[in-house]
Design brief:
Two copies of one chain form a homodimer. The first copy, chain A, is of the alpha+beta class. Chain A has one domain: Winged helix-like DNA-binding domain superfamily/Winged helix DNA-binding domain (Arc Repressor Mutant, subunit A), CATH 1.10.10. Helix content of chain A is 48%, strand content 13%. Chain A has helices at residues 17-24, 27-36, 43-46, 53-66, 84-90, 94-100; strands at 41-42, 69-74, 77-82. In chain A, strands 1-3-2 form a three-stranded antiparallel sheet. In chain A, helix 1 runs antiparallel to helix 4. The longest helix of chain A is centred in the middle third of the chain and has 14 residues, at 53-66. Chain A is globular. At the A-B interface, helix 1 and helix 6 of A face helix 1 and helix 6 of B. Chain A binds a DNA duplex (30 and 30 nucleotides) through residues 1-2, 4-5, 7, 26, 42-44, 51-62, 73, 75-78.
Chain lengths: 104, 104
DNA sequence: GCCATAGTTCGATAATAGTTGAACAGTCGG
DNA sequence: CCGACTGTTCAACTATTATCGAACTATGGC
């Protein structure tokens, strides 16, 4: 039976600006968001070398609960994607500004 | 002798995106930035009721070190202002997106 | 059914951030 | 020069966040 692995995602209208800004304020989370701007990834592909999967999962949770990413089951794996349209609708221009910022 | 009360401010080119996002991710700091978008304020005018001045000063420090605000001596007081042009130069569109976001 | 795989959740600990009163440093008016 | 005034800094405490191993859950292949 499928569906029991669904995780909660906030509605677009409920996204809180400070929560989104906080989720993006961590360098490793921001780097992941920049990679996700290229397209969805499986969770395993989201990770950086030498980072335990529980740590990655924690960052994914922070991003998901802020409404920055979507995390959906896909067979034995999960797809992680940027909620680009939702963010643009709720906070127009924000994601473009963040993604367009110069490399540090 | 004047000038001994100058506080350090980062150069525009040195502003770090995650630091700016973090500074803006606190509701009370974000509210202050929104008020400063209307124009500069003295420190005392920045404060909310029942907040000790040491707490306010701490938030001002976070915003100043991230490069979001400028805090300059002015006689016995200080003027706090938004570094709007500097932020626009370094992170185009970011401040507009944050200031244009819907009220929570 | 059984096992390997993918990833979350739990629990403990470490690190960072927020809050506050008290002490301190300049500035201005007498 | 002295006191009142504005605001920062310090030090201690609390609270939130990050990190990570271990336990756990669902899935798909055999």
């Amino acid at each position: 039976m499928a569906g029991s692995r669904e995780l909660p995602h906030p509605d677009t209208a409920d996204l809180v600006l400070t929560d989104v800004l906080f989720a993006l304020s961590d360098p490793s989370r921001l780097a992941l968001v920049q990679r996700l701007a290229q397209g969805p990834l499986e969770v395993a592909a989201c990770n950086q070398p030498h980072v335990p999967k529980s740590t990655l999962s924690h960052h994914l949770k922070t991003l998901r609960e802020a409404g920055v990413i979507r995390n959906v089951p896909h067979g034995r794996q999960r797809y992680v994607s940027l909620r680009r349209e939702d963010l643009d609708e709720r906070f127009p221009g924000l994601l473009d500004a963040v993604l367009g910022a110069p490399e540090q």
